[in-house]
Amino acid sequence: MFPNVLEVARKLIRERVQQGETVIDATMGNGNDTLFLAQLVQETGKVIAFDIQPQAIAKTKDRLEREGLADRVELKLASHEEIESLNVQAAAIMFNLGYLPGGDKEITTQASSTIRAIESGLRVLRPGGIMTVMIYWGHAAGEVEKEAVEAFCHELSQLEFLVLKYQYINQQNQAPFLLAIERRAQ
Amino acid sequence: MFPNVLEVARKLIRERVQQGETVIDATMGNGNDTLFLAQLVQETGKVIAFDIQPQAIAKTKDRLEREGLADRVELKLASHEEIESLNVQAAAIMFNLGYLPGGDKEITTQASSTIRAIESGLRVLRPGGIMTVMIYWGHAAGEVEKEAVEAFCHELSQLEFLVLKYQYINQQNQAPFLLAIERRAQ
């Protein structure tokens, strides 16, 4: 069977990230991707993870400590727009657009700040690095955000980036899909 | 780097087709996919390949003979709609929609017959089997055909099929993209 879209995103990241590299989880949520990335970069690597909700930070911190992975992770209670201020070269950046599963569905990512965060992320992405954007658009602001992100990606220079859209198109209920942006190696 | 869409299609097929199975090349063209499939199913397998242009048959026949693969291939000078009349269980079916590279660009696949051929193909696809549809839509009838095929795929039952759309979205010149339809295993 075709893999689900989250598995596809992780596979693309696994194929590109080396042990010891710096990676970013732009939308920590319940910390699933943070844990995945922390395992991937190993002890010598670094994960920088963002969320604006204290409950996301608390839950992720707890999970990382239980797994013995907290040493390599920096948790930031801040908007993912703050990627702008990072002075790093990231091998991978993960976004999950939508709301925190199990949290307040009224608190969602929003088109304008998401676009700014993606722009900032692309500036710190190393050559050959990858940004994955999982788009959960089954919420009030979801359709607007989806359109905005797709429109932004359509315009990215094909000399610098290659943007993959990976979607199962005969699904009901506005199934999530994946955008994966690879910065071309120089 | 992300693989090109043709490589993606072939990988999906390679992962699903067993030696000795029957597969279909719905749009023979210059025979590239016919040769690929003939190697894949090996001596005990069978490839049935369609084209309405005699030059496609002649060229593919010649290439197969030179490669020693002609024994397992049946070349049909007929529309891919004739898939309807086949009494087989196919493990894979490949479509390239557009015109014959290097041939007459006025002779292209057309929406209505393409949809009928895809429908027929899905009827003979075995559980767990896959149909790949490469859509080259940079020709006069291309946009109409693309829209029709996508609309058809959107409506396929998700209980029976899973339809993947795999597309690089920041490309110029109406770059080809892939639809891959997997019949769920029973």
TrEMBL record, chains A, B:
A molecular-function term among this protein's GO annotations: methyltransferase activity
Keywords: Methyltransferase, Transferase
Pfam families per record: rRNA_methylase
GO biological processes: methylation
Alphabetical list of InterPro entries matching this protein: MnmM_MeTrfase, SAM-dependent_MTases_sf
Coiled coil: none
PANTHER family noted in UniProt: S-ADENOSYL-L-METHIONINE-DEPENDENT METHYLTRANSFERASES SUPERFAMILY PROTEIN, TRNA (MNM(5)S(2)U34)-METHYLTRANSFERASE, CHLOROPLASTIC
Designated name of the protein: Methyltransferase domain-containing protein
Organism of origin: Brevibacillus agri
